[in-house]
Each structure stands twice: as structure tokens, then as C-alpha cells.
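Quick question, first post here. What does this chain look like in 3D?
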Amino acid sequence: MTDILLSIRNLDVEYITPGDPVCAVKNVSFDIARGEIFGLVGESGSGKSTVVQAILRTLPPPAIITGGEILLNGKDILSMSDREVKKFRWQEISIVMQSAMNALNPVIPIRKQISDVLYTHKGYSREKAHQRIKELFDLVDIHYDRMDSYPHELSGGMRQRIVLAIALALMPPLIIMDEPTTALDVIVEREILFKVLELRKELGFTILFITHDLNLLLEFTDRVGVMLKGELVESDEAVRINSGGQHPYTKKLIGALPSATGPRRKDLLPRPEQFKIGEKPLIEIHNLNKKFHLSGFIRPKMLHAVKDVSFNIYPGEIVSLVGESGSGKSTIARLIARLIPPTSGTIILDGIDIFKSEPRSASLNYRRKVQMVFQDPFGSLNSVHTVFHHLARPIIRHRLIPQAELYKYIIDMLETVGLSPGSLFADKFPHEMSGGERQRVAIARALSLQPELIVADEPTSMLDVSIRMHILQILANLRGEKNVAVLFITHDLASARYLADRIIVLKNGSQVEHGNSEELIQSPQHTYTKQLIAAASPGWLKKNLLKTNENRDSK
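> Answer (accepted):
Ran it through. C-alpha cells below.
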């Protein structure tokens, strides 16, 4: 590589603590050529985002850069004055943040959020800024009539396109994308990334792409750097990394990648060979509907989020609800957990019509039998309480275990979900654990009440790929060890394929297809199911590029 745009040499970043400093980034070096897409992959805490903050000079205290240099077009960013740094941001380097909802100001219209960049850095007039915003909206395929919308009025995909438009506002040569598609479903994610590739080809910018999803990087990038515990342990072309890589950690990441197509791997989340699912349904869902009032009193607008959904779950069975964001998956989860009331429909648990026997709110008995594991392991645990408190409180409330046996019972629950020794984790606070450990605590809390059904709402979507399979393995083991049924809600069809016995595909609140997991994967019938499988399959990018080129040639 002769035309180097960004060069990082021997970068060290430390966090100052009351004791010894914590080294977050250790001697990291890599180059990015002009026009290249370079990907950094690694689990949470590996130092990826710290490298990004160092490049942008936005590291918060108590983090300090203790060594190295960062050269952009040959100029050392670390030696710049604060005034120079403010000028180079957005003009030389811009960033697309992880969460588009958090990256955008919720009380300011989109027009003003983009125009602020243009006023501050270019001194544009109001008319010139308006014209530039229209051009940016055209670039990211959003109609300019959404200029005065607020972020909450846009879908997740549209918000991410707006953040991309802001990053492109001044046409910087380098764009950093820090986990830009984490909260998006697989189809919208692919649309965003395909649009990024089209824009790169048209505008010629360079991309530093940060993620914990190696599967995504192998499709999208030219070269990949693998980070572990603050160090860059491997860096090579994406094709070579895809063939297996050299470092043991890279091999581990490659080995943990499930696929929604091809033969089923027997070494990845194997199913029990001899296991009988109960003959009588544990829970029956009949014609479930949920409508939400959006606005207005005289003529209220309604959102029909769940439309006549019906299915059964048998004791010990794992059923997966799959669909894109807005398909009604999480609404169904909350309806079954009785966190929200339905508009109409019936739920029968153990042969009892729940809405007739408990019309106002769920009984303690129902709460014990049906437990929920939420998507966000960081938000589902109270930061001021220990793990022991989180598990003890529901057990005491339900009077399930005598006080004298409570501690041992909680330790056993923690070790059941792989937190060993349980006595060590029982005294920890949530902030002292990783995302994967916190999600295990959430599963242990649900499991502690000895439920018959666990509703797991996107329990792995915010976790690293290497940790994701561990969580799926825990859910898979519950059926054999505890005879617990699981409703697994996800937009990841590959995970659903390996974990679930049956898959139900949702689109716009309705069931479009359901069946045995492997049969549905191998022989999908509905067009939308085929789209989901294609979007989750290796080679999706090349297929889309070939299709696009063929369409252009035909024109």
C-alpha cells in the first residue's frame, strides 16, 4: 500500500485508576489505504472504540494516550492543538455512531441537526444549507419531505441513513463507522451497508468499520484487524481471515459463526438425540391482536402491531419468532409475559384461559410459570444491587425457597448458567461484569422461579459472536435439565436455525410461514422468508453487487 490515508503507530491508551493504570490499548499499529474499507473486530472491552476515540481525540477522562502516533495524510493528530482538532473533525474525519437514536438529538428536527454542521464548518447560508441537505437526502435515499421530522418519527433504518448523511455532509476522506448496524434487523442492515458501498464507489471515501460481528466484516471489508484485550492480534486480507486466520482467537471467532444456509453443522449447538416434547400444549395462543393508539382523540391513528397470531408451545420445546424490526416479535413477547394487555385474543396456559381467570393483571402463579429475559443486559439489572439481591428478591416474593436454603439455591442457579464459582458472582454488582455475564444473570433470575416457559426477547443481539453461542447453549440445555420451554425471539435466522425446533416467521404483525426449523431453512415457501435467508447467508454482498451490475447492463 503506497497511498496511505491513516497510519497508526504503536498506540497506547491507559485509564488512570486509584491503583495501577489499566492499559486499554497496547502497542496497536495498522495502516489504511485511501479508498479502502478496513475492519476492526473484537469482543466488548477489546479496545476497538478506544482506538476510535483516540483517532478523534475524544477520549474521556480518566483515559490518556501514553504513546504512539496517529497520522492522517501525514499529519500527526495527537500533536494538533484543540483548535486544529475542531477543524479536522467532520472535514477530514467523520463518524457514524452505533445507536442512531442516541446519536441524534430527540428534540431537534433533522434539518437543523444537519445544517448545524454546515453552518459551523462551512459558514453556509440558510438557502445553500437547504440545498445541500436535499442533496444529502438524495444520496441516502430519503425523500426531502422528512427534513423537518424528529428522530422518533423515523424508522431505525431511516435514522441510520440520516446519521450517514451527517457524516457525508462535508465529504471527508475518512468515515469511521462504530457498530453502525447493531440495533438493525438483518434486511435493513444489508440495505444500509449496500448503500454505503454505492456511495463509496461514487464519492471515493475511505472507511474504518468497527464491529464485533466478524461475519459482517468478512463480507463488507477489504482487510480485517482482530483485537483482543487491547492488542491487535492479527491483521490480514478479509479473504485470508475467512479461510481460518492464524491466531487462535481468530479461529475461535470463525468457528462460532452459524450460517442460515448450507448443511447443518453438527459441532455447533447440537440437539439432544433422544428427547420427547410433551403431547399436550403448555401454552396456546389464539388470534392474538394488539393495536396501539398513535395520535389524536377524534380520529385516532392506529397501529395494528399484531394481527391474528396463533401458535402453540409444548413442554420442553424451543420455538423461535423471526422477523425484521417492527414485525411484532417483541410485542408478542410482552403480550405473553402480560406486560401489556391485548386488544383481542386468547392465551391458554396449562389448559386455563388466562384472560378469563385473571382479567385485570397476571397472578403471581402466572408470573412464576412464565418468565422473560430481556434484550438489553445492561438495562435489565439495577446497577445499585448485587447479583444475589437480583436473584433473591423474586424467590422471596414467591416464597419458593426457605430462607436457610436461599444462598445455596442462588449459587446453584448461577453455576447452572455458567457463572462459576457462583459465590464469586453473587457478590458482584452489574457494572463489574461483562455483557455476556450480565445476560447469564438475567437468565439465572428467570430460571430461579422454576418457570415452565421462558420468553427470551433478542437475548443475544447485543453480545459478541463468541459469547452469543454460549448463551444459546444455556437456553438449549434448559430443556434437557429443567424441561423448560423457550420462546426465542430474534431477527437472526441462523441462530434460530440452530436453537429452535420450530420457526415462525413474522412480517408486519402477521405470520407468513412456520414449520420445522431445518425444513423451513432448506425449503422456504414465502418470498419474505427467502429474503431473510438470503440476507443471512454468506456471499450476500457479491450476489447483490452482481444483480445490480446486471440490472445496469440491461438498461
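The chain has 22 helices and 20 strands.
Residues 261 and 537 are 6 Å apart (CA to CA).
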